[in-house]
Amino acid sequence: MIKVLGIKIIDRIKEAGLTQGILSLHANVITTRLGFHEVTDEICSREAYIILHLNGDPADSEKLSSELEGIGGVEIREMIFNNDLEILNSESEITTVEILGILVERNQDVIKSVQKTLTAYGCNIRTRLGVNEVFYGEPAGLIILELKGDTKQRLLLEKDLKDLKHVHVRTMVF
Asked: Which pTM value belongs to this model?
């Protein structure tokens, strides 16, 4: 099983220290961490996001999630890749941040198709992170995207990726 955890920190000035403390306590299950918030010369957003790629004992991952949920002002979402069980995202609210997780089984034709698809929708991809992974004993690539822009285009990107064989797609919406 591969697990990706998304954390939305509502007010990073108040909750970031508590969040960091919990993440440090559970560093043994965190393989990759990506944090981001909006910052320009004019603004520095108090809202922040952290994406965690977790590994290790599922009980330890659950403990991490549980402790994070205990912090006021933090929202948690998760993606789980296991066999071909499809986890549907039924959220219908207007979103501010959509995270797409793509697990790509290692096959040159599949990799080329995924890259071609991502290039075609490049204007909707704000952030991209790639991680090497093992999926049921075979090498795989895990790609995490932060999507922005036109909702129809984002949905088409998700559909086009799901149509590819040996590609597994999950979403998180905040």
From this structure: 0.75
Q: What angle do CA 17, 23, 28 make, to 5 degrees?
A: 155
Q: Domain residues of the chain, as ranges? A: 1-81, 83-174
For residue 37 the two structure tokens come to: 């918030």
Q: What is the pLDDT of residues 19-72, one digit of tens each?
A: 999 999 999 999 999 998 887 788 888 899 999 999 989 999 999 999 999 998
Q: Which two tokens stand for residue 61?
A: 């991952």
Instruction: Give the CATH number of domain 83-174; options: 3.20.20.140, 3.40.50.10240, 3.30.70.1150, 3.30.1330.10.
Output: 3.30.70.1150
Integer CA distances (angstroms), 124 to 147, 151, 159, in order? 5, 9, 14
Q: 110-130 burial string, b = 16+ CB within 10 Å, else e?
A: beebbeebbeebeebbeeeee
Close Cβ partners of 116 (under 8 Å, ≥ 6 residues apart) = none
Token couple for 118: 């991502």
CATH class of 1-81: alpha beta
Q: Estimate to the nearest angstrom the gap between the alpha carbon of 7 and the chain centroid.
A: 9
Q: How far apart, in whole angstroms, are the C-alpha atoms of residue 86 and residue 76?
A: 19
